[in-house]
Predict the structure.
Amino acid sequence: MFLYRTAVLYHSANPEQPFFYLNNKLVGNLGTGSFVTFYVKPGQHVLTSKESILFMPSNESGKISGQFEAGKTYYFRYSKDFVSVTGLGSGFVMSDSSSLTIATEQQFLDKT
């Protein structure tokens, strides 16, 4: 199983990295453009992502569950994308969205 994070400029300098779990067991943290590989036994599994706040896992931002077959390779994509900027008096707030989806081998190779 391959889990990767898209290689986008947005959030690339942020030291906070999301946490990823397989069946509630931590499998890694990912910076932009990075990936982690791990093996799973055939059967039902749940992959989740949690955002990082003060370097600790917080709210769940993605969840994929499914039946995994022996001998197959699976690819999963995590992305954090810019959505908007809102002005607040003399400052501003940036908002973004996160997603965890099934990907193709080519998407993994391109980190898109």
